[in-house]
Amino acid sequence: MTFEEFPFNEALKEGLQAMNFEKPTPVQEQTIPVILAKRDVISCAQTGTGKTAAFLLPLLNNLMTDNHDKKKVNAIIMSPTRELAQQIDQQMEGFSYFLPISSVAVYGGNDSQAWDVQRNGLTRGADVVIATPGRMLSHINLQNIDFSGVKYLILDEADRMLDMGFFDDIMRIVKLLPADRQTIMFSATMPHKIRELAKTILNNPVEIKIAIARPPDSIMQAAYICTESQKLLILKHLFSVNVPNKVIIFAGKKQRVRELALILKRKGLPAEAMHSDLEQRDRDHVMHEFRNGRINILVATDIVARGIDIDDITLIINYEAPRDVEDYVHRIGRTARAEAKGMAITLVSEADQPRFKNIEDFLEKTIYKIPLPPEVGLMPAYNPKAASENSPRGKFKGRTQNHASKQRGKQGGKHRPPRQKPNN
Ligand code: AMP
Predict the structure, then answer these.
(1) pLDDT in tens, 212-243
(2) What is the count of structural domains for the chain?
(3) DSSP designation for 418
(4) How many angstroms separate the alpha carbon of residue 410 from the centre of ligand 1?
(5) Distance between Cα 49 and ligand 1 center (Å)
(6) Dihedral sign for Cα atoms in the order 223, 224, 228, 234
């Protein structure tokens, strides 16, 4: 189908054209009609599936077709991280370019000027507020915000918000909103706590689940079986001749991320660290430099694993096998975007072996093990079962949520319009 088949407002269709959106992705095909029909929705979809447009487009259309008070906040979109909030905001700007709809992004870590813009947006009634829960509450605690006009509440990556400990914050915000509203929840996984949240804040929701997808074949996956101390030597080897264009090295802990970035920088490599302890200004700067290629190696925690939309990443390195199968899929999904090819290499120490085996089991394939280069030394045996029995934690517990199929396209960057100001 094409977007023409949705009964969208003409100005919204123009926004879609400017963004080069022609065919809806599966999650969009299924979710848009339900949101247009004003039903509550719980949709199981990951980043990269087009989930942002799946809620923004019908939201904007509903705002255009229904009466809404221009002086009040009409819709709240909650996002777990600043990065995701920024990305939602960018798509919002594109789609709403030809519409008389204002939006404001409310997330923390920036300067006092940003605080004022956010406060004005909230108190003067920007139509759509895109917010992280913590920052939203900071504003709520300091001034009276009129939420009586809120007709739409969207929770994006709800599972991640709960994982990050935002349950109470979300509930505090929800309690301030009118009960008579449409609530839409997106979550990559559907664990019990998400179902509980859904029961509490959604009203007879339609459940949408996009069918299984594993990482696309365009991502070449490989691993080095090694010891912990061989990992740095492998990195050195990988970057000894040249550094491939745009590499992300994922590590589980901030401390490890900092150390690795430092070691690589000391070797004269264009590397930077990215993790949640950085100030917003620094995070923006690092991402900007990575986007434009001045930084070629991003050493990051999972903060970058979901929701970062950069097309030309050629290599992903997992410094350890991620704890969760789903994190693996998200991480390696940062490469081979937009029809490009990419490679994902995981460094698997003995402690990582059971987790890595779990990933192979989920993918139903054996990932190619690259022989260790001679200068790195001897390769240990790959024997995940024995490693698992030796491990005090026992067998790795992995979620088996599947990754939804991806249909990508390019956002019309050139057409991206300037931000609209909140209502005055
Ligand atoms: P998301 O899953 O919302 O983060 O979207 C991933 C990327 O796909 C973003 O760059 C979107 O702009 C792009 N995208 C989403 N839906 C479409 C579509 N129907 N056509 C073209 N590009 C799309």
Answers:
(1) 457 777 889 999 999 999 999 999 999 988 88
(2) 2
(3) P
(4) 7
(5) 7
(6) negative
